[in-house]
Amino acid sequence: MVSHLQSTARFPETGTVTARDLMTPNPLPLHGGATIPEALAFLTETGFSAAPVIDNAGRPVGVVSRTDVVVYAHAREAVPSDPRSGLNSVVRVADLMTPGVFSVAPQTSAVEVAREMARQNVHRLFVMEDGVMIGVISALDLLAHFAQGTDGGA
After folding, report:
1. Gap between the Cα atoms of 15 and 24, Å rounded
2. What's the pTM?
3. What is the pLDDT of residues 102-114, one digit of tens each?
4. Which of 44, 84, 74, 63 is nearest to 136 (CA)?
5. For a Cys-Cys bond, which of 27, 84, 127, 153 suits 16, CB 3.0-4.6 Å?
């Protein structure tokens, strides 16, 4: 059985679809000081595959994904003599996040969002306005948009 989830994206009736239309607003971040168990609990409870990582000033500094946590856990198990083996409270999200945040402006067209994801080889882009993170667009958001048969502007 195949189930279909309703998209939360808001597409305009006419005109170019933009990052603002595609994004999920107000992404929930993780603090860089969060422990690996805390990150795993957050990602599991929210159902997110990744989250932006913020510093003490609330600025985005990276992204942590479920894959990052799994790769870390696997690496720790591969070195049993390491005192940090397994998921413990010593290692922080900032230690294993992908540093840097790839972003677009809210007015960026859907086509340009897709091009930027491909250019950066990432699965998500954050939408930034005046230095503030206001949303996130995943590759699945783009697929849902383009599956509707609209071109999103050039």
Report:
1. 20
2. 0.75
3. 999 999 999 999 9
4. 63
5. 153
